[in-house]
């Protein structure tokens, strides 16, 4: 039996009843694919269901305010996905009357849609013979065919795409593509896969060469950058505080945060007081104290944020203050959301 036939047969037995598998609606498939980039399925499902309830159609998403979209996305990370999602929804609603194009060539032109998402949408929604290559597919193909080209090199990416095209089942591309990704997620897992019970074990080159644990090959990431964030949580006599919206390039653009003092290393209260005026226009505070003795280390893909929250008690009423009880209404990074939930003054 061929590679693709085995995948289809396995998928028929083992596929999970995921909510987006009940439809071919391009909007819903697109939404699920964007959400599942850099996100585990179990984490993505509740976000998907919440989004679909809030924005049942692409026109509904297009009509939403960006803050609404970012708030619902809060906790999924990689917020550029949400901003691109919103921008593309507006474009589809305005330029395509709410109807997604049905070809890879047109889909890949849309903001936030790359080769993988365009291939997935074209095949799942429109039965177009397009090969999908995501992390799961890289792993299955690298192990089964014994390919040691780095999957994050330009040569490797091109090779695996060609290989995926060669072995795909064009007669049932929708189920085959979903089956191949599912096989990588459930059967050919990153660590400790069940090779004995695997239906592909007879022809698997990696298994024959005892190379399962070393494939696929990936070029090492850049060195992790350490950053030191000191959030200044101002509190006035009315139990109001201040939030600022992040602008410009970098992480968390358009999300809200407390006034931020970023330093080269961990600092103490004297340095916080000394540098307050560089961050906020505030008369001498009545008190400044550290909320969390232990740094919170928030890990992103290329940087670790060593974070401390400093409570700054203001003598006078804050201009443009936000009630502490209203903080939950704003889209914020997850580490700030966790602080807000725990914060008691």
TrEMBL record:
Adenine glycosylase active on G-A mispairs. MutY also corrects error-prone DNA synthesis past GO lesions which are due to the oxidatively damaged form of guanine: 7,8-dihydro-8-oxoguanine (8-oxo-dGTP). One of its GO terms (molecular function) is purine-specific mismatch base pair DNA N-glycosylase activity. Its cofactor is [4Fe-4S] cluster. Gene3D superfamilies: Helix-hairpin-Helix base-excision DNA repair enzymes (C-terminal), Hypothetical protein, domain 2, Nucleoside Triphosphate Pyrophosphohydrolase. The keyword Metal-binding applies. Its EC number is 3.2.2.31. It comes from Arenibacter antarcticus. Belongs to the Nth/MutY family. The gene is mutY. Residues 35-186 form the HhH-GPD domain. CDD domains: ENDO3c, NUDIX_DNA_Glycosylase_C-MutY. It catalyses: Hydrolyzes free adenine bases from 7,8-dihydro-8-oxoguanine:adenine mismatched double-stranded DNA, leaving an apurinic site. Keywords: 4Fe-4S, DNA damage, DNA repair, Glycosidase, Hydrolase, Iron, Iron-sulfur, Metal-binding. Pfam families: HHH, HhH-GPD, NUDIX_4. InterPro entries: A/G_AdeGlyc_MutY, DNA_glycosylase, HhH-GPD_domain, HhH_base_excis_C, HhH_motif, MIG/MutY, MutY_C, NUDIX_hydrolase-like_dom_sf. Binds 1 [4Fe-4S] cluster. This is Adenine DNA glycosylase. Transmembrane segments: none annotated. NCBIfam families: mutY (TIGR01084).
